């Protein structure tokens, strides 16, 4: 399972790229707003900067909800950089836009996906990635990871090429479960990535090795 970083924060992206562990980035309007980005021009600047740092796919989301404007924005976003992937929502307008834009060769990340049926529709409409939102499903008392696993199973059974991108990841156990469920990718917030790296026994072990090594008195 590949890891993407779920952020619009450039410092977090730079730090994580240096670690060599992420293959892409996902952003959304809320993550952009958190960085003080409030219009498409600023979003464009930020996404282009991210695309300069990350080689892999960088998802940027349309703000529009109506078909015509959605398609216009998606084409504009796709022109920002060669590695941009356009995020479109799992709505009727979103599916229609996916269908139009995938035929034009745009790469699409189907976002706000909460069911196998939505994932199937997105796949048929030509989405490159489908993003089931695990944490938000859990928040509503559903089993988000079950949805990820079911989408993986159905896509496998019918040989569907759309990649399953587990999103709305809230803690390290979500990553383990996404990997076990067969997700192709998990997009993780910076905080979760740090949690994934950390283990108290590693810290204790490093300290003990250093201490033992220093104890040898050379004569
Ligand atoms: C990424 O593609 C999604 O937009 C993101 O993971 C949503 O996460 P949230 O539910 O924590 O806002």
SSE topology sketch:
Elements: E1 2-6, H1 10-19, E2 24-26, H2 29-34, H3 40-53, E3 58-61, H4 67-78, E4 84-89, H5 92-103, E5 108-113, H6 116-124, E6 129-132, H7 134-139, H8 144-157, E7 163-166, H9 172-181, E8 185-188, H10 190-197, H11 200-215
Parallel strand pairs: 1-2, 1-8, 2-3, 3-4, 4-5, 5-6, 6-7, 7-8
Helix pairs in contact: 1-3, 4-5, 8-9
Bound molecules: erythose-4-phosphate.
Erythose-4-phosphate binds at residues 6, 26, 28, 111, 131, 133, 135-136, 167-168, 187.
Explain this structure:
The protein is of the alpha/beta class and 219 residues long. The protein has an eight-stranded parallel β-barrel with strand order 1-2-3-4-5-6-7-8, surrounded by seven helices. The chain is globular and about 80 Å long. 53% of the residues lie in helices and 16% in strands. It has a single domain, classed as TIM Barrel, CATH 3.20.20. The mean pLDDT is 97. The chain has helices at residues 10-19, 29-34, 40-53, 67-78, 92-103, 116-124, 134-139, 144-157, 172-181, 190-197, 200-215, and strands at 2-6, 24-26, 58-61, 84-89, 108-113, 129-132, 163-166, 185-188. Erythose-4-phosphate binds next to helix 7.
